[in-house]
Write a structure and sequence with these properties.
The protein has 336 residues and is of the alpha+beta class. It has 3 domains: 3-46, Rubrerythrin, domain 2 (Single Sheet); 53-242, no CATH class; 246-333. The chain is built from 6 helices and 11 strands. A hairpin with a 4-residue loop joins β4 and β5 (42-46). It starts with a strand and ends with a helix.
């Protein structure tokens, strides 16, 4: 006879029933094998490593050719070591519910150039569920901080054969951070620009320890050491470092500054015409030109190493123009 213990499966969210005194249970919804740690209310799940060494090695063929990496990387890189590990993650299913009230401002103008601003009341109900994760150990130079996948076959058989990192972080601290992130995401989704009142509850529905298989591949290129990691379930590249190509850096700074300069100059010309809406279009052109120029400069400066993943020293690339735009917008808004 099973008893309801108030826990949920971290893989599918289904409720768990288990007999008193048991610490291993199979989820009746998705067949995941779970381990219950004492009375701490934390379920533990380990995903089966489905990737073989040859697959982890072959992943380099497509990853080396992706993006702006050195063109001779596929033929010049030398594999040094390839091995699997298990990384621990705190994983929580968090429900956020309540109300957020406030207003948004809308500006109207008439044909004579007169403007007026109205405050439009907004009242948004919040009812969202978020799945959040955070690595439970020091990942070192792996560049992995969050879970990318929760679909896979669960198994504890690999624990005796594959090195496992021990959890070293506080579950309470991790849960607090995940709750704060879920609350922030819920506020953003509510889209109330000016909040005057809110009554929001953040309720964790489950907290789990997930052990996830990762393949680590270290390689050398022109006497320098690099690394990339492979998802042990899906076979996809999770993170990595690779050398950039000087040709791409040179093209970025040359083309980027030319195009950005032309757009910015066009914006100044439009702004100087004095016609209706010319100032707005002109400023927009200057901002776009600055974004392109600044993005090209950052890629030229940091493009000698291509970084993918959750590395703390990850720099802007050509894919980070959105963040660059926000920075420039902040500078413009603050009067530079």
């Amino acid at each position: 006879m099973g008893i309801q213990i108030g826990l949920n499966c971290p893989a599918c969210g289904g409720s768990l029933d288990m007999a008193e005194g048991e610490n291993v249970v199979n989820c009746k919804y998705c067949s995941s094998t779970l381990y219950i740690e004492g009375d701490a209310g934390v379920t533990t799940i380990a995903f089966k490593n489905k990737i073989q060494r040859t697959v982890a090695e072959q992943a380099k063929d497509s990853w080396f050719r992706k993006g702006f990496k050195a063109r001779d990387l596929p033929r010049s890189a030398k594999l040094l070591e390839v091995y699997p590990i298990y990384l621990p993650f705190w994983y929580s299913n968090i429900r956020v519910m309540g109300w957020i009230c406030g207003y948004e401002e809308r500006t109207y103008s008439d044909g004579k150039g007169h403007t007026r601003t109205e405050r439009i009341p907004k009242e948004e109900m919040v009812l969202q569920e978020y799945r959040r994760s955070e690595i439970a150990c020091d990942p070192g130079d792996l560049g992995i901080k969050f879970l990318r996948n929760m679909d896979g076959e669960s198994s504890f058989e690999d624990f005796e054969m594959i090195p496992t990192y021990e959890a070293t972080t506080s579950k309470d601290d991790s849960l607090d951070r995940m709750k704060a992130q879920a609350l922030s995401d819920a506020r953003r989704a509510a889209n109330v620009p000016h909040v005057t009142f809110e009554k929001v509850h953040v309720m964790p529905r489950s907290l789990s320890m997930v052990y996830y298989p990762v393949w680590v591949v270290r390689y050398s290129y022109r006497d320098r050491m690099y690394i990339y990691t492979i998802d042990g379930v899906s076979g996809q590249v999770i993170s990595g470092r690779a050398p950039g190509d000087p040709l791409f850096q040179g093209l970025a700074i040359t083309i980027g500054t030319s195009v950005g300069g032309l757009i910015a100059a066009g914006g100044l010309i439009i702004a100087s015409t004095g016609t209706e809406n010319s100032a707005a279009f002109g400023i927009g052109g200057v901002i776009v030109g600055a974004i392109i120029t600044f993005g090209a400069y950052l890629f030229f400066r940091h493009g000698s190493e291509i970084i993918e993943g959750d590395f703390s020293d990850k720099k802007y690339g050509l894919g980070g123009l959105g963040n660059i735009g926000k920075e420039i917008g902040n500078m413009v808004g603050g009067g530079f």
